[in-house]
Structures are given as C-alpha cells and as structure tokens.
Structures
1.
Amino acid sequence: MAVLTAVVGIGQTKYEAKRLDVSMAGLIREAAERALADAECTWRDIDAVIIGKAPDLFEGVMMPELFLNDAIGGAYKPMLRVHTAGSVGGSTGIVAASMVQSGIHDRVLCVAYEKQSESNATWALSISLPFSLASVAGAGGYFAPLVRGYMRRSGAPDDTGIRVAVKDRQNALRNPLAHLQMKDISFEMVANSPMLWDPIRHLETCPSSDGACAMVMEKESLASRRSGKVAWIHATEMRSEPTMFSGRDQVMPQATLDNAANLYKKAGITKPREELDCAEIYVPFSWFEPMWMEGMLITERNQGWKMTYEGATAFDGDFPVNMSGGVLSSNPIGASGLIRFAEAARQVRGLADQHQIDGAKKALGHAYGGGSQYFSTWIVSSQKP
Amino acid sequence: MSAKEEQASGPVMVLSCPISLDYAYSAGQSASRFLRAIAEGKLLGQRCPVDGRVYFPSRGSCPMHGVTFGDDAVELSDKGTIVTFSIVRVPSQNIALPLPYITVNVLLDGADTILIHVLDAKLEDVHMGMRVQAVWKPREEWTTSTANILYFRPIDEPDAKYETYKEHI
Ligand SMILES: [Zn+2]
C-alpha cells in the first residue's frame, strides 16, 4: 500500500522574458528556497531532490542537474533527473511523489525550470535530420496541422481558440507571477494578431519565459502534524505512446484517454466534470484547451469547444480552467508542467490569492509533451482520500 | 539612446556561444535501402507483417508491434492526398524555405503513414483532401534524400473523401 503523500510547500519565481540577474542555479534556488520557506523547512530536512527540465539542447548545457543539485543547496543528497519533453514538469512532480509514496524517502523537494533567455527552443526543436527535408518549424509547425484536424472533426467555430487566448490572459491579470500581463487584452487584439502557423495566431501561442517552480512533499505522518494547509495527492498517472505509427490519432492520442481513465479510477472519480472543482491544463496553443477537455474525458468527444464557448472554463464558470493564466501566459518550458501541478495544489490549499476558486477542494493538474505523446497528471485535494 | 544601443553599452550578461556536434550518421539497413531507392526516383515503403499497414518512410520495424519488416519493400506512387496542413509565416534557423510556405502531411497512395513535406500552391487553394503529386529535382541532382522531392503540387483530380484519410490526422 502506497504511503499517503501531501504537498506541504510551493515556491515559484516570477515568470518573465529574461532573468539576467541570476544564473540557472540562482533561478531554481530562488524557487526551491521559497518552497522550503512555505513548508517551514530547511535543506537539512530534505531527503532527496528531483530535478526536471526540457531538452538540454535548449540551453546547451548537458546534464545540468549534475552541478545544479550542489549549487541550489542539495549537496550530498540523492538526486534524480526527470526528462519527458514538455510534460517533464508534471513527471517531475509525479516522480517526487513516488519517492515518498513508495516509502523510500520521508520528505523530498522537486524543482523544474527553464531559462529560455539563454536558449533557442525553436532552433532546438526544428531538427534537421540527415537525408531529409527540414520543414517543421518548431512546436507550432508541428501542432498547427493537428489543430486544423481538430477543427475539421469537431466542427468547432474558428474563433474558439481566440476565446481561450483572451480568457487565459485575463486570468493572468489575477496572478502577479504570470509573465504576460496584458491589461488591454481583447478578442479583436487576438483576432488581429499575425497568423504564425495557420490556423494559430501569434496571441494564441505561449511566450518564452525564464522561471522555476518547486514543491516540497512529505509522508502522511509528518504532514498530518502540520497546522497549515496541505494538498493530499489522491492519484498520479503517466502515459506515453510512440510519436509515429500507422493510424495514430494525433489529435486525440490513445495515451491521453488511457491516462485520464486510469487517473480517475485511482482517485475514485466517476464524473470528473462534477467532482473536480477546477483544472490547470497544459495549453501552449489556445486550441489545446478544448482538445484536452475531451482528452481528459471532462466532456464528450468533439464537444470540448462548447465548454470554452459557453464560458464553462472561465474563471467564474462551472469548470474553471487555467486560473493562473496557464502556459499561454507563462512558459518556462521545463517548469510549465510542474506549475500546473502546483496551481492545482495551491487551489486546494486555499492559497491561490487573487486566482483562488472559492471553496476548491479537488483539482486536476495536467501536462503533455513531445508530439502529443507524453502525458502526466495528478489529482490533489484538501481532504485525505 | 535606443534600447539596442543601451544594451550594447551595458554590462555583458549573456554570451552567444555556437555549439556543434560532429558525428558519423549511419542510416542503417532499412533506411539505406529507402534512400538508395529515392536516389533512383523510387519511393519504397515497408509492410508490417502483423497488420499489413505500409510504413513510409520506414525505419525497418513497427513501432506498434515491435516486429522487423525484414526485406519487404512496397513501391509507392508519388501521388497522394493532403490530410492536414499549415501555412508557416515564422522564420526558423534550420529551414531554408522562403516564407510563407505550406507544410503538408501527405498520405501517399498505397501508404498508411504520412510524409511531412511542403506544397507549392496558392495559399487560398490548399485544403484537406487535395490531391497532389511530387515535383522532383532535375535527375542529375538526385541524392539519397527526401529533399529530391522539391515539393508537392496540386493535380487535377477530385478531392479524396474525408473518410479515406481521416484516421491519419
Ligand atoms: Zn505493425
């Protein structure tokens, strides 16, 4: 039987385009120390460190975890690096949780980051392989044809993505940590922004951010003694599938459907839309909100856009999504998944300040990555299962 | 002072350091056969022995069933159907194509996997289901690369029905 585990501390940096005042290590130390302070711990109380980030080629520093663990304060502690492309932040949280759930450690710290100002992600992702024509321009170039596929099969109105983009940027105004603070954001502004990878417009894409997010997790016997609020981990799930195989449904991969079904089963949830109070979902391009509402079995197939359209996913809707502003408002790639997990935990701890959903008790954190083939999710609650 | 000049006169915070990795790349048995064929203007796919689906380009084994394709080879037409596409207006360092360009996921006739390539057509004409054919480089420029195909171009055939390609999106 797994050891019941809780999130007891969360730390984040401010997300912004360029953090020139700190090194990579300085950046993640900032998040780690804030998480420790929130958990009322010091490095002495931490048994192990889990570090996550997206491909090393982004910053051009190979296996940075080898020096980072020492540099942030985790010297001589066991350390594990996690790497599952864009979903890595979520996987980092899950690996950290598993260290406690399995009884190996009592209390761990996980941290995930990206310093995009020192990197060129689109270059790193636009790989030119020998013997082939290079034509896929970064993540946008890869996902735009899939978005078009979703639009065709669902019959969603063309402006669904614009509505997601406006909603998430409005939510970001509630979150002082969010990178984009667009006070004048409007439907017209997004609609008139340049088409980058048709059908994806500039303002329907995520920014490039520097930032780090950290969490402290500990076993039940420690967490139960705390007077402060903790987030109990009810279920975690990770699924993946090959990027290319014949008949692969790239718009709605089997891995996301299996991930969702198994996550809810573990958490004892049968009606996710009713039983979850809110969700923080990985939406790097606006259209992935309706796509993952279906991929996470929140709604019926080809109906996800209706949730956006009817305002269900809005801050005051019946199923708020991306209260923090989401990936569309801050994207330190490697950290982005962990930020989603952290936001879910902040909500159920009741510590989400201006972006708190009143009375949130159970929340979903979600990340995906690669060519829509890695999925990491968790459900946290203010109450023990 | 412009922001750029200010930055230029301020302290150096970030240095751009080009990196390179030189390595010998071996295509392997299966890809070598595919590449030698494409150097002769032929498009070779391989059939999965488990479900009979034709992979193009093939890497010699099936990612679904974990079996080798062995010596199997299926010659494919250079005509196909656009299953989905995007019009790219963003420059990317590794990509030499002039902007905007149309990137297409093409299902070649006889294949069961998509080929990602580019299309030469009026931007307003491109659509899902459009029938296209490869335009090859002059024969004397052919090498062992999918870049032997310069691009695809629309052909005068009726659109493929959505049902015939929808599972490849
Ligand atoms: Zn097979």
2.
Amino acid sequence: MAGDAIDTPLGGATGDGSRGRDIALDRGKGNCLICHRVPIEGELFPGDVGPDLSGIGARLTAGQIRLRLVDQSVIAPLTLMPSYYRVDGLRRVGEQFRGKPVLTAQEIEDVVAWLQTLR
Amino acid sequence: MGGLRVLCIAIVLIHSHTIGAFAADGPLRVEAQPLRSASEFLSPALRAEQADPIRNRGMLWVEQGERLFTQPPPGGAPSCATCHARAETSMRGVAARLPAVDAASGQLVNLEGRVNECRIVRQSLPPLDYETDELLALTAYLTALSNGEPLAVSIDGPASAFYAYGQQLWNERQGQLNVACTQCHDQSVGRKLRGDTISSAVPTGYPAYRLEWQTLGSLHRRLRACQLGVRAQLFELGSREYLALELYLKSRARRHPIDAPALRR
C-alpha cells in the first residue's frame, strides 16, 4: 500500500471487466447497488448510502479503487463501505463466512477492471 | 471567523483520526439528532393502512391476543384476565416500561419474558417460543394497550449494566461486512439502502407486520435481519444480547409514543 492506493493487483491476477460487472451486481457477492448508483440502464433500485459510481474510473486510479474495495476503513475510519478483502480483526462473523473475505482476489481485480471502464 | 472554522475542521480531522486508531475496538462517533421513525418513510398507502385499525393487518394478532388473554386455556389454568382484570387500565403503560430488571432473578426481562413467566409460574403452562402466533398475539395485544404511551424504561441501578452492554453492541462493528448499527441508524438516516430508507431504529412499532415476512414479527426478529445483513453471527431471539439492545433502543427513543402494530416493508 502506498498513500491511498494499492498499486499491485492482488495475487498478480488480471481483472476481467465484464465478470466484474456481474460480481458487482450479484446480491450474494458485491451487492454494490444496495449502496451505490451505477451507470447501468434498468430498474435496479440502487441505494444512495455511498456516492454515485458514474465516472469513478476517471476520478480514481486502479490502485485507489483497489484500496477502497480491499478495506476503505484504512483511509476513512468511520466508513460504512464494507471491507471486501479483509479477514483479520473482524468481530462476530457469521459461521459460513468466517476466515474468508467477501470477495476473492480475482473477484476484486474483476471489479476494479469494471470500475475503470466507468469514465 | 475564518480562522475559527479552519480550527474546527482541524479538530474534527484530528478527532476522527484518534477514533480511527481505535476503530476496530473503540466506539464510533454518535451524533445527536432527532430520531426518525420508520413510519415516516412508509409509502402513503402503507401509512394509511397502518393508521386504520380496520385495515392494519397486524390487528388480526391484536384481536387473537385479546381472546387468548380473556379465555381460560385448556387444562383448567386461570386465564390471564382472571388475575389481570380490566386490562385496558391494568396493563396500560406496562409495555412502555419494559424491558426491566427482575428483582428476584436480577435478569433483564421484556414483555415476551413477562408473559412467559406468568405462563410458567401462574398457569403451569410451557413458555411460548418467539415468533409463534400465540406469543406474537399476546405481545401485540398488550403493546397496543399502551399505544400513545411514551417509552419510559429505566436504565438506573441494576439496569445500567445492561444498558451499557446494549450501547456497546450498538457501537461496535460486526460481521463479515464489518458495519455497526450506529453507522446505519445514526449516521445514514434518511439514505436509501436499496429500496429501504434507513430510519433511526425507533422500536415503538413492534411487534410489527413486515411485508417481507408476510407475518407479524418481534423486535428481536428485526434485529436478526439487521445482523444477517452484515453477515454477522446471529444472537438467539430472547438472548441477553438482544435484550440489552432492546433496552438501549428503548432508552434512546425515550418519550417516543408506542405505536403498534406497525407496518413495515
């Protein structure tokens, strides 16, 4: 980690943006729309707890996006954004989720790749 | 003036960094603001239904509860009404004062617990499980008898430790998603989480009829849904954790009038 970014892809994985879009929309995986608006057509009923992600690829670098997915609380201690790639220091994690991050390294890279296309 | 503002911002930054260092364990900041009930965010149609005793779906349980309260149970035990005559007055305000610490056991007891205590001790009947129609009916009936009464739980003396525990549970992050109750219900009130508008978690409407459940449900069942949402390990319905949270929520919403059964999405 350097500053507010993680510049190296997790596990050296290469992201696939179209897979990343599916992961982001999947309610059992990213479920990003529960909190964010995204530039996708259709009746998606997005939430507005987090900022609109339209244009995020132009606002943030891949490294900055990666850090925000991995564990936003590092830069914003009070953030409501879940830590998608963190397993340590968590409290009372449901049994079936214990010891696993919300998304795998590959899935994080896929979502990073998709967000980069939102310009 | 400008200098003062800069100073304030600097203090806020330092402050949030200090908290940040303890974010995994320490309390998160809570901002004082007027509490907003989920009833405020209901669609006009649901709000009208909630306010109309003829159309409010939860009233079915209230009516069943009144029957259960007055009719003697099979087996010859006295009915609730035998000992609690004129429930409209004798039971008015009871739901607003609970949960309270039971002097004999030292335990925190809520309305569900009180009803079950009478079943066991006074009627020699087995306790009713949470989310059974009978317990929901009795608690809905008794809570509705306190409609309009302001919440008035005590958090002094023996209750203070339970309150402190509830407050701790409210403020600490939990679950795989690592989110605390306060982050949604203090910091994000009025915002949308998918189709739901986040309220201040004012517990005056429970038991409530939730469309998603297609039935009435207890406050503890609602707390479970929130824990599930952050992928946390669930507490048992009626557990000391949920009782402590119930006391915390009811003290936090002190003076808010009871308004049950509510309708929820």
